[in-house]
Amino acid sequence: MGANVQGQTNGKLKIGMYWASSCGGCDISLLEIGPRILELIQIADVVLWPCVADFKYRDVADYPDGYMDVCFYNGGIRSSEQEEIARLLRQKCKTLIGYGACAVGGGIPALANFKSRAEIYDVVYHQNPTIDNRERVEPEPLHEVPQGELELPEFYPAVLRLKDVVPVDYEIPGCPPQADRVWESIQAVVSGAVPSRNAAVRVGCFDKTVCDECSREKKLVKIKAFRRHHQFRPEPDWCLLEQGILCMGPATRSGCGALCLKADVACEGCYGPPANAEDQGTCMVGALGALLDAPTEDRAREMVAEIADPTGTFYRFSLSSSFMKLAK
Amino acid sequence: MTETVATVQTPQMTPAVWEPRIIGFLCYWCSYTGADSAGTARMKYPANVDIIKVMCSGRIDPELIATAFASGADGVMVLGCHIGDCHYISGNHKTMVRMPLMRRILEDLGVEPERFRHEWVSAAEGEKFSKLVTEITEQVRELGPLNWPQLMRERGVGHGTDLRPWGE
Amino acid sequence: MSQDAPRTQPSGNGGGEEPRIGVFICHCGGNISDVVDVKRVAEEISRIPGVVISTTHMFACSDPGQAMIEQKIKELNLNRVIVAACSPSLHELTFRRTLARAGLNQYLYEHTNIREQDSWVVNDKELATQKATRLIRAAVARVPHLAPLQKRVIPIHPSVLVIGGGIAGLTAASCLASRGIAVTLIESSPFLGGRMSRLAGLFPTGKQARDLLRPVMDAVINNPKVTIHTNAEMIQSTGFIGNFRTTVRLLPRGVEATVANVQAAIDACPEQTEDDFNFALTKRKAIYFPYDGCYPSHPAIDWKSCTKCGKCVEAVGAKGINLAEEPREIEIQSGVILIAVGLDLYQPRLGEYGFGQFREVISLAQLNRILDPKGPTGGKLVVNGRQVRSIGFMHCVGSMQQKGVHPPGPDGRMNDYCSRVCCTATLHAETELKTRYPNLQIYDFHEDIRTYGRWHEDYYSQASEQGVAFVRFNPLRPPQVERDPREEMPLLVRTIDRLTFGEELEVPLDVLVLATGLVARDMARLVDLFRCSVGPDRFLLEVHPKLRPVELAVFGLFLAGSVQGPMDTVESTAGAAAASAKAATLISQGSIELDPFIARIAEEVCSGCRICLTVCPYDAITRDDAKKVAVINEAVCTGCGTCVATCPCNAITQFGFTDDEVKSEILALLARVPAAATA
Questions:
Q1: DSSP strands (E only) in C565-608
Q2: On chain B, which terminus has fewer CB atoms closer than 10 Å, C or N?
Q3: In chain B, whose CA is at the least distance from the CA of C648?
């Protein structure tokens, strides 16, 4: 995996993968394609992959514009560095792909959007039993020291998606994207079968929801009470939502193969909203209106109050593409 | 062209001329007709609630409420038939569950509860309708503009390519 | 916006043309223009791109107003029209028709309410004017999304199923058959005629009930277009307007029409049971017919009391009676269904005014059987074998019930309504009695007298003249009925009389007649099968008492007679005639046109989650197991839109109320986008 910096060509594609506010899972998921990676490196050279090898930003900046054929960008954008690199990569690649739930919809980091920067700093740097910060030091973008000025990336008030800062050509949803879908996406993009220019075309997923891939049976009964995984052992082969677990399957794009459901765990919605929708939460609220066994208004309110954290549950992976974008 | 836009009140105007902008989703058979009956009786109420008609409150997708708030509404009102009186038998039962759930989400985001009203209004309850409009208008006026798009811009969101507010 | 899977909503701008919008703002003769500056509004709206004409009219709904709109549509080649005027409930249809006359699809129309919801309710003229502008802007933003929808055309099977063989069902069947329409009439009991066959003299004409009933029955029986099934039990009904399929189980009659020596069979039968026809005043055999001249004229076996001993079979020489006859099921196809199952009489509680406690307390229904010259006493006033010197009538038994005064029924509900016909029926009985027995003492205990119908008041006047004593009680303190301690006469009624300003009365009586109210039958099965709306009084509820008085909300279902509420024979026949006229109109059209505002599922994104299946109040949604998607029956869908909001992946849209249409209104009202007329 050499970096062909000085414009040496060998007929292979140049690909890159960058991680922003990321857990590293997406980087690992690229390896999940298994032996197919051997096929990949036959046709492509990796010219950027901070998780795996040592590339400097200087190297990337020195690449000619459009040097990379395909660049994957995973993780949410929370700092000015991450935005800067996003812009840089946009310049230096032909095809920019938002990879994974964070880049596509904000992902888990975007749940921090419920709190303001001040509130976050307060918890992280002050109200913390293991922190001793009597001088109330907080990160600042610019700090004077005797030797000169120190720069730190700016901590943004909210987690953004990749397409909030640069035009994106494709998006691959999932936390992480499932291996077969990743491989299909690479093939689709590289072959030119799915053209896109700044259109953020979503690939690596199907047009239905997880319910289509889930083999559990429906009995067409209403939910009598909400329960969570730790409270009981769900019946196998029967729809978890009907059993009272808030499964996001009906409001989540398909493509993952309903892997979690096969392990008796409710879908958490990591593939983002369905093909025809933008906001997972309102999708679920609409559906739950029909599913609760609540003959009176009082019972309806009671059942709604039983849900521990509807906002977090519905928008666990997609808060940044929800209708909210920011807390107050 | 800009002249035309400027004659319509928007939250971006100076505070002295700000008027609460409230969207009301009304079901045709009960609440919309109830609003009509307030008109037939010449009841007077503030002009701030603009009514969007649907056939049944069951049609009111929470997405529409979200669109309203995210697009600049300072308040949203959802009205339907009383439970048991739905023209389509049980449409309002679904509304009955959706609205409290939507309220929880809106409150988690910091939308004050007075900005979102959900009530049952029958075709004969013109007076109730007119009181509701007056109430929500005055309460929202006191709270001030919600200014959702403004907030987004102030927080630095919106310096990229996908800048349009959600829903467009 | 990310371009994921293509949006499945029907796109507006039929034909992909540029919108050419005409906006017509009505002065409404000052009702709008006195408050809203309509000319200014028109001028502002005219500046929006896509608006070709923006003008006002004094009365848009008038003939000249409509003609002007029609002319402008043609002259300016408009492809979208907005009228801003009164509420759409008044004139939306009017203007849709105007578009149709002008050759423009009637659904490319938007009606904006600036009267009931603006000029009539906003005090400040400036604010009202701004509101009108805003609302019309929203319409301008919406109309490019409208699609040229077409009404649904559902073919109608040219036949009617009439459920119920009483006077209402018979009248309806007769009316329909006389128009050449095929009718299937099903009756749950073994005989036609219903409650009317148990009456003798009717008010207000005094004619005999069965004399009036017979010609109606004959018209039905003799018409080859009518198929009659008695002993019929409703099992299931599926389908939709134009094509209903109803499964009916026909219980065996046990007796064939050809049977001879009927009386011998009846005499031979050892089983006796209460005769329902005479309201249990008499008994009858397990093989029976209710009265001479009934239809069918041959008897039926009452399987509940028949022990299958076979004595009747012996008596007729084993010909014509088959105790082993099996029930069979038939399926009836019909274009429409007419429900005429009638009502029940209130059954007083044990001890209510002494009912069931004292033998001398009887119901008005029982009295009418006694008065019938063909009845159990030959028309003589004999109760429990005794002559009657003094008789009382108690109004409002089981009607006008009040909380705290009357206990609720088993389902917790009160009959708080007036049963309408009992006052007249009571007074009619009183005048009959006084005419036949001038010396009979009659007391009438009432809280009110409601002789509401034509010529009904005459019975009250006559009863007064004939010397009936009227006593008015306070409904909160109804009279008490006891055994007479002095034993002059068996009963004593204690009450406080409002007509004599509160005198306490003790009235000795031989007989007390309770004018029992009318209640809805137990129709749970019917209500469930046909998704009927039911009123708080448990009678079936029509769509609208004035505009659609004999129709149910489900298309193709009609109501006839007292299934809708307490009413007399006059009103029942009128209702039946109205329902049959409506049904006949549908049938004669051969097909029905329904509004196109229905829901549709986009198969390519439907994931088969089935959440929508249970949401539809009309069961219009089913599942295609092969394709694993949901399917909406377009003939049944009523356009409520509940499934649209339910679908968790936005796979369902509602024509006329798509998300794009509604969102465009929201955005324009909030001035988030300039109200430019682009799709």
A1: 591-594, 599-601
A2: N
A3: B61
Are B68 and B23 in contact by the 8 Å Cβ rule? The answer is yes
C648 touches A: beta carbon within 8 Å: yes
B104 to chain C, minimum CA–CA distance in Å? 18
| pLDDT tops 50 at residue A248 | yes
3-state secondary structure of A241: coil
pLDDT tens, position by position, B32-49: 999 999 999 999 999 999
Residue type, C404: G
User: Is domain B18-154 classified as CATH 3.40.50?
Assistant: yes
Partner-chain residue, chosen from B63, B67, B161, that has the shortest CB–CB distance to A166? B161
| Chain B interface mutation, best of C28, C93, C642, highest count of B Cβ atoms under 10 Å | C642
C204 cis-preceded (ω within 30 degrees of 0): yes
pLDDT at C535: 83
Chain B residues in contact with A274 by the CB 8 A cut-off are none
Are B167 and C646 a contacting pair at CB < 8 A?
Answer: no
Give the best residue of B1, B53, B92 to mutate against chain C (max C CB count within 10 A). B53
Handedness of CA B3, B9, B12, B13 (dihedral sign): positive
Name the DSSP letter for residue C62: S
Under the banding of pLDDT at 50, 70 and 90, the label for residue C176 is very high
**Hey, is the C-beta of C7 within 8 angstroms of any chain A C-beta?**
yes
Residues of B in contact with C669 (CB under 8 A): 21, 23, 50, 52
Q: What is the pLDDT of residue C16?
A: 62
Average model confidence (pLDDT) across chain B: 82
**The CATH number of the domain covering residues in C159-251+330-342+521-591:** 3.50.50.60
Question: Cβ of C89 and B36 within 8 Å?
Answer: yes
Q: Which two tokens stand for residue C391?
A: 């008789």
Q: Does C625 touch chain A (CB under 8 A)?
A: no
Look over chain C and give the mean of its residue pLDDT values, rounded to a whole number.
Answer: 92
Q: What per-residue confidence (pLDDT) applies to B128?
A: 97
Partner residue opposite B166 with nearest CB, options A158, A325, A327: A325
- Smallest Cα distance from C138 to chain B, Å: 9
Neighbours of chain C (3+ CB pairs under 8 A): A, B
**pLDDT (mean) for C456-481:** 96
CATH 3.40.50-classified regions of chain C: 19-149
Q: Which domains does chain A have, with CATH numbers?
A: 13-108+160-202 (3.40.50.700), 111-156 (no CATH), 210-321 (no CATH)
Domains of chain B by residue range: 18-154
The stretch A141-161 carries a mean pLDDT of 90
Q: What angle do CA C375, C380, C381 make, to 5 degrees?
A: 110
Chain A CA closest to residue B106: A311
Question: Which superfamily does CATH assign the domain made up of C344-519 to?
Answer: FAD/NAD(P)-binding domain (3.50.50.60)
**Interface touch B165/C672, C-beta < 8 Å:** yes
Dist CA B19 CA B144 (whole Å): 9
DSSP-derived pairing of the beta strands C343-345 and B49-54: unpaired
Burial class (CB in 10 A: 0-12, 13-18, 19+), C344: middle
Residues C27 and A327: their CA atoms lie apart, in Å, by 46
CATH number attached to the domain at C19-149: 3.40.50
Q: What angle do CA C648, B55, C22 make, to 5 degrees?
A: 110
Beta pairing class for C21-26 and B116-120: unpaired
Does C596-655 carry CATH code 3.30.70.20?
A: yes
CB-based contact C610 A277, cutoff 8 Å: no
Q: Give per-residue pLDDT as tens, A289-322.
A: 999 999 999 999 999 999 989 999 999 999 888 8
Write the pLDDT tens digit of every residue in C20-79: 999 999 999 999 999 999 999 999 999 999 999 999 999 999 999 999 999 999 999 999
Average pLDDT of span B5-33: 72
Q: Which residues of A touch B94 (CB under 8 A)?
A: 289-290
Q: Do C646 and A200 touch (CB under 8 A)?
A: no
